[in-house]
Amino acid sequence: MPRAELENPQVLEQAVAALWPNAPQELRYRLDQRDPLLRRALELNYHRSYDLNGRLTDHFWMIDLPFLTLFWVEFLARWYPRAAAAAPTPSGSSSRSSTGMTCSA
Fold first, then answer.
1. Comparing C-alpha atoms, which of 25, 28, 27, 1 is closest to residue 13?
2. Does the pTM of the predicted model rise above 0.85?
3. What is the DSSP letter of 66?
4. How far is 72 from 22, CA to CA, in rounded Å?
5. Distance CA 48, CA 44 (A)
6. What is the pLDDT of residue 14?
7. CA atoms within 13 A of residue 26's CA, in its CB half-sphere
C-alpha cells in the first residue's frame, strides 16, 4: 500500500484492522505463529551477554573509541600550533613591557 494512501483516515483504519486484530484470541494465535521466527531473529541480531555482576555487558565504548581518538587528534592538531605561537619566548635579560618599551632587569 503506498504511503500516500495511508494519509486517508479510512484507509489507515482498514490497514490497522487487517494487521492488528481486535479479538485477543486471534492476536494470540498470530503471535504464536510468528513468535518463534521473531524470537530467533531478535536473538541473532540483538543478543547481549551478562557480566559477572548480572548486568548487561556494555561494549559500546569500543565503537566510540576510534571516533573519540579522531576527535582528540583533530582538536589537538588545531589548537597546539595556536598555543605554541601564543606562548611567550624568553628574550634574555631584557623584556618588553605592555607599552613596547624595553626595560632592563
1. 1
2. no
3. H
4. 55
5. 10
6. 84
7. 7
CB atoms within 10 A of CB 14: 14
Distances 80 to 59, 62, 71 between C-alpha atoms, Å:
32, 27, 14
* Cα separation, 46 vs 23, whole angstroms: 30
Q: Which amino acid is at 11?
A: V
What is the structure's pLDDT at 64?
Answer: 93
pLDDT < 70 stretches in the chain: 1-2, 6, 83-84, 87, 89-105
77-90 per-position pLDDT tens digit: 998 877 667 767 66
Q: Give residue 101's identity as a one-letter amino acid code.
A: M
Cα angle at 93 between 87 and 99, to 5 degrees?
A: 65
The C-alpha cell at 52 is 559477572
Extract the C-alpha cell encoding 85. Answer: 605561537
**Beta carbons within 8 Å of 95's beta carbon, 6+ residues apart:** 102, 103, 105
Per-domain boundaries in the chain: 3-74
